[in-house]
Amino acid sequence: MAIPEAQGSKALLAKMAAGGRVGEERPGADRRGPGLIVRPYRPGDFRRVRRIFVDGMTELATPAFKRSARAPSNVCLLLASGGTVYTVTASLAWAGLACLAFLALVYLAGREHYAGYVRERLRTDMADIEGHYLKPPGAGFWVAEVEAEEEEEEEEEEGRVVGTVAAKMSPGDPSSCELFRLSIDRRYRRHGLGARLTRKVLEFARAHGYRVCVLETTDVQEPAIKLYQKLGFCVRSSRPGPAHPILQLLNKVSICKLEQRL
């Protein structure tokens, strides 16, 4: 569920569109780009960071459904289910209902793919961001924040966080880091924020001596994959997402692994 947009946020969005810059300089913050800074995560960001993550994952159920519904195997199953019911009942209405029921199953399979991932992450790294991304050596977590004008300083600071990204060492490979949790509030997309956050991780990786940066994303996230490729990543492999065999039969979403040598 999206967080309601306050009047202050609307004003900031207008300033971004106009190319304006607002707010005072903050130590350790990356101020490239109008109206936005990228800074390290703070404990007060916890709820907002989790909300951005959940919203970003949940909205992928619809593109996952569209991809799966067009898959040849699912089209055949759709026609077979409708045809079988029509043969048995001689009713177009019941055949249509059978087709709708099958499409509903396809949608639920796609939604469960992401819902299951969200549940797992909220129990693990997103339940203890500091423990997973701030305390281990060679790891980090950053947020993008909308800068506020002086008259807006009383606005809850947590509500100004509009993007996230994280990085940590790849398990068993100290020369490689993984990029995680790149997610942008949908109201602040198309401002180059995804590229800025990705570059932040690449700069961090080079500064810490990593030789490779890797990440995983689903193939329905085509804009994200194009962004990564534009920034120098290459797709190395693809595999079906972890799920119950029945869900894998209906859900045609694959997990892509991308890599960039630094």
Provide structural commentary.
This protein is of the alpha+beta class and 262 residues long. The protein is 46% helix and 21% strand. It contains 9 helices and 7 strands. It has a 7-stranded mixed sheet. Helix 3 crosses helix 5.
Chart the SSEs and their pairings.
Elements: H1 7-18, E1 36-40, H2 46-58, H3 61-70, H4 72-89, H5 92-123, H6 129-134, E2 140-146, E3 161-170, E4 173-184, H7 193-207, E5 212-218, H8 222-230, E6 234-240, H9 245-250, E7 254-261
Parallel strand pairs: 4-5
Antiparallel strand pairs: 1-2, 2-3, 3-4, 5-7, 6-7
Helix pairs in contact: 2-5, 3-5, 4-5
Q: Give the tally of β-strands.
A: 7
Question: Helix amount, in percent?
Answer: 40-55%
Rg (CA only):
21 Å
List low-pLDDT spans. Answer: 1-27, 150-155
Structural class: alpha+beta
Q: Into which percentage range does the β-strand content fall?
A: 15-25%
Q: For the report, how would you describe the main beta sheet?
A: 7 strands, mixed
Give the strand order of the largest sheet, numbering strands 1, 2, ... along the chain: 1-2-3-4-5-7-6
Tell the overall outline: elongated
Total helical elements? 9
Question: End-to-end span in angstroms?
Answer: 38 Å
Q: Return the string of H and E elements.
A: HEHHHHHEEEHEHEHE
Compute the average pLDDT: 84
